[in-house]
Structures are given as C-alpha cells and as structure tokens.
C-alpha cells in the first residue's frame, strides 16, 4: 500500500473546499484559480469577435449585465423572447467556437461536482459592472434538464441568491469569489437564482468587473 502522504503529494488531483448548497448544487471554492488566467485570456479573444452587449428583455428592458457567448449556441434575448441562437444576432455570423480548454475544464468541474460526462455546447459569458444585477430567474431555455450547468466566477465578488423551485421560496445568499465554481444539477437545476447589485471595487485579475461563465448543454 502506498504511504498516505505520498498519495497526497503525487496521486490526487487538487482538492478544494466544497459547500453543498442544496441537493445537486455544490460550490467548489477556488477550483478555477489555476485556470483563471487561461479563462480570462479566452474571454478577451471571444469578446474581440463577439463583443459584450446589453441585451433587451422581451419586456423591453436593457439588461444591466453585458453578455456574449461562445460555442455552438449562444443565449440571447430581445423583443422576440429568450432563446439559444446559432449565430450572433449582432453580426449574423456564428459565435466563436468554445475553446477546447474551456470544454475540458467544464467537464472536469462537473465530474468533481458529481455529474460525470457533461458535454457543454454553449457558454454564456456575463460581465458585471458596479450596480449590475440579475433578478431571480430559472434557466429553462436548454433542451435537457438532466444536464447540469457549471458556473465560474472571476474577478470582483458577488452576492448570489439561491432559492427553490418556486419564485416565492426562501433564498439563501452566498458570496461567489474569484475562482469559485458551482455545479448545478439534479433537483437544483431548475432552482430560482439571482445576483445582487455588484459593489464597486478593483480586482487584480479583472479591474472593476466581475465575469461569470456558465457552461450549458443547450441543444
Ligand atoms: C442555479 N448567472 O447566467 S451563476 C445565468 O453569476 C446566471 O452571472 C449568474 O444566473 C451569474 O443564468 C449566476 C450561478 C448559476 C447559474 C445557473 C444556474 C446558478 C444556477 C442554473 C440553475 C440553478
Ligand atoms: Fe441563471
């Protein structure tokens, strides 16, 4: 049998603290810290091709969070509603491809969160500036709710609100910090959630912004 200390040093992938928020919802604290520079470099590359924009809700409100996408499909909203689109409606051309390293990262994170064999085909990239927020909602534009969503928080911290399957269910608030990864699956996949208004600040990796990547199986 191998010595336990040798196993710790050489055998296992990095282990991070985890918080079980609810059944199927687990925060992997700092799980993306090593990957963060790679993830942020690719955000710059994606947004050079598909720039961040403030989309309109079906009700005609400008979203305070700026968004872009990569992958085979991208989440969009406008007067016609919420949906996944294969092309960027601003340019009429395909979204930038999902970087290989992103898909691999999301698959590994999902496995660590208890959902092996997650194959994401879309990544929505949210950019929060001070005051930007996301009101309580469900993510239900995807085809298969058996697939989890993997979210990665980068830059300034945010207060995240996590409720139940009904809008009126009580919410828990947790801070999501730079490098935190959350896997949302099983009974938590359709839970209501939102993000409180971002507080102004400066982060060494992102300046005055918070970015959130959400990996999804859209189609
Ligand atoms: C729980 N984004 O893009 S990430 C979204 O921080 C979204 O930008 C937030 O909600 C953000 O739709 C929250 C955490 C998250 C993402 C998807 C979920 C939590 C979720 C889907 C189901 C349940
Ligand atoms: Fe959401």
Kindly describe this structure.
This protein is α+β, with helices and mostly antiparallel strands and 219 residues long. It has three helices and 13 strands; from the N terminus they run αββαβββαββββββββ. The strands form three sheets. A seven-stranded antiparallel beta sheet has the order 1-2-11-8-13-6-3, with helices on one face. Strands 7-12-9-10 form a four-stranded antiparallel beta sheet, with no helix packed on it. It has a two-stranded antiparallel ribbon with strand order 4-5. The longest helix is centred in the N-terminal third of the chain and has 14 residues. The chain is globular and about 45 Å long. The protein starts with a helix and ends with a strand. The site of N-(carboxycarbonyl)-S-(naphthalen-2-ylmethyl)-L-cysteine has 15 residues, from β6, β8, β11, β12 and β13.
Instruction: Write out the CATH superfamily name.
Output: Alpha-ketoglutarate-dependent dioxygenase AlkB-like
Q: Please state the overall shape, judged from the principal axes of the Cα atoms.
A: globular
Q: At CATH's second level, what is the architecture?
A: Sandwich
Helix/strand structural class: alpha+beta
Strand order of the largest sheet: 1-2-11-8-13-6-3
Q: Output the radius of gyration.
A: 17 Å
Q: What's the SSE pattern?
A: HEEHEEEHEEEEEEEE
């Amino acid at each position: 049998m191998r010595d336990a200390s040798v196993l710790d040093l050489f055998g296992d992938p990095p282990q991070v603290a985890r918080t079980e928020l609810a059944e199927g919802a687990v925060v992997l604290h700092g799980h993306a810290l090593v990957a963060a520079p790679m993830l942020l470099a690719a955000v710059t590359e994606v947004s050079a091709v598909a720039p961040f924009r403030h989309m309109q809700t079906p009700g005609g409100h400008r979203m305070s969070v700026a968004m872009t996408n990569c992958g085979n499909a991208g989440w969009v909203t406008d007067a016609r509603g919420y949906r996944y689109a294969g092309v960027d409606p601003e340019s009429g051309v395909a979204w930038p491809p999902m970087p290989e390293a992103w898909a691999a990262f999301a698959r590994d994170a999902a496995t660590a969160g208890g959902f092996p064999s997650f194959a994401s085909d879309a990544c929505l990239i949210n950019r929060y500036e001070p005051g930007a927020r996301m009101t309580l909602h469900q993510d239900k534009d995807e085809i298969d709710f058996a697939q989890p969503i993997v979210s990665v928080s980068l830059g300034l911290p945010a207060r995240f609100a996590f409720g139940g399957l009904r809008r009126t269910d009580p919410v828990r608030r947790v801070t999501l910090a730079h490098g935190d990864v959350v896997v949302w699956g099983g009974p938590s996949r359709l839970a209501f959630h939102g993000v409180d208004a971002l507080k102004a600040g400066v982060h060494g990796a992102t300046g005055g912004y918070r970015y959130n990547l959400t990996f999804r199986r859209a189609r």
